[in-house]
Fold:
Amino acid sequence: MSVSGATSGHRRRAAAVAATLACSALLTAPGLGAARSAPSPPPAPVSPSVTVPRLDWSPCKPGSPYDCATAKVPLDHSAPAGRTIDLAVVRRQATDPAKRIGTLFVNPGGPGGPGTVQVPQNYEAFPRELRERFDIVSWDPRGIGNSTAVNCFADTREADAWAAARPGGFPVGDKERKAWIAAYEDLARRCEKRDPDLLRHVSTADTARDLELLRRSVGDPQLNYLGVSYGTILGATYANLFPGKVRAMVLDSNIAPQAWTNGAAPGEPRTTTMLRMGSDRTAAATLDRFLTLCGSAPTSRCAFSAGSPEATRDKFDQLMRRLRERPVGPWTYAKTVADTVNSLYIVNPGWTDLARRLQELSRGRTPAAPVYPPPPPVAQPNPYLGDEQAAAVWCADSPNPSDPAVYHGLEEDSARRSGDAGRYWTWATEPCATWPARSADGYEGPWNTPTAHPVLVIGTRYDPSTPYTGAQAMAKELADARLLTNDGYGHTALFNNASSCISAYESRYFVDGTLPPPGTVCRPDKTPFT
Structure:
C-alpha cells in the first residue's frame, strides 16, 4: 500500500524499493469519500469480443535475464472497440524448463506498486522451486509506472514543486493541516483536467480483467497467482469474477474485503479504509514488538537499545516528544514516525537500519542517507510514481470520508488507541476526501463465489500495515480458503523471506495443490536482533 507524503521519495528511487509499496498508507485525495447510492450490480467479466493481447517478448536490456513486452487492453472492458491503453509486462522464465508447470503472475502490492521493477528487484525472495518451475510474470497495473499511467503534472519539476509544498509524513498542527488539505485539493483539480476518463477506469476490477487477458495471452488454462498486500484484494476480486479460472492463488498480508468496500454500505463512510482495516493498531503492536526485541538485545545488535524493553520504549517516546519541539535537520516528528512505520515492513535490514537512525536522532545527529540496492536489469527501472497513481486506484475504489475537516478528529481517536502510528495511518487516505473520480465499473462483492480450487491465505502476526485479522477475515469470506499463520514480523512473508516453513508450504501448494493442515503456524527462521 502506498503512503501519502512518501511518494516523492518513491518517485526517485523506485528501483530500490523492496516491498515498501506493498502496503503503505495511501495519498491524500479529496473526492474518494463521496456518499454513495445503493451498491451497483456486479460488473460483467471480460467481453468475449475483447482481443487477447499479443505479448512479443524480448530482453528488457541486452544480456538481461528478464523479458519485457507491452499488452494493449481496452480502457473500458465494456466497450472493447474504444480507447486502448498499454500495460508494461515483465517475465523471468522458469530456470528448469523440463519441470515447468506454467506461469505465475505476481502483484507486488500498492496500489501503485510497479511490478516490472519490484518483482525483478525481489526475484531471489521467491522460493527456489517456484523459480525453477514457473515463468514469473508481473506487470505495472493500469494507471501505474511504465503502463499508461496517471500523471497530473506537466513535468518532473512541477511534480517536485507540488510535493515540496506539502507537509512530509502527515500534518502536525492547524497550519500544516490546512497546507496538506489544500495540496491534495490542488492535486485533485490537476488530475481531473489531465485525463478524467483514465481516472474512472483504474479500478481493481478493471485490473482483474486485465489479469484475465494476460492469463489468456500466455496460454495457461487456469491462473496461478501470488498477490501481496493490495494484491490480495486484487486476487480476491479476480477469484470472484473468474472463479473457474483459479488453479492456485496465494494471498499474502491481506486486506479484509469488507474493510476495503466498507461493507458495500451506501452513504458517507464514518472512517477511513486504513482505520477500518486496523492498520493503526497493527502498526502500534509491531512497533512495540520492535522496541521490546531491541531493548532485550545489547547495543551491538540493536543500536537503539536502552538495556530493557521498558527503557527502550521510554527512550522512543522521549525522542518523539523532543522531535515535536526540535526537529533534527529535516527529521521532523511526522517524518520520523512515517519512516519508522515504513521501516518496519522489511525486517532485514530494515529493523537494524531503523534502530541506527533512531539512535542517531536521539543523539541530535542527522542520520546518514540510506544506501539502496542497484536497479534491476529492466528497461525502465525508475518510472514516475507520483502520489496520484496510488490515489487514483484507492480513492476511486475504497470509500473514505469526503469532508477533510473530520480527519483531525479521526487522528486523535486513533492516536489514543495506537499512539504515533495512528496519526500516520489516519492521514494516509485523506487525499481521497477530495478525489474527483469514482470507479465506473468497480466490484464490491460477493466474495464467496466457489472457485475451481482452494485459495491459500497467509497472515503475519506483527505486520505494520495489514493486520493478521485481515487474513482471518479473507480466509473466512472466500468460499474455499485455508489460512497459514506466519508467527513472525514485517509486511508480507514473501518479501521478508524469513521462514523456510512458509516457503515450503507455499511451494508445495503451487506445485501440486496441497494445502497446509488446518491451523498450521510457521515461525521465522531467526528472531530480529538475535
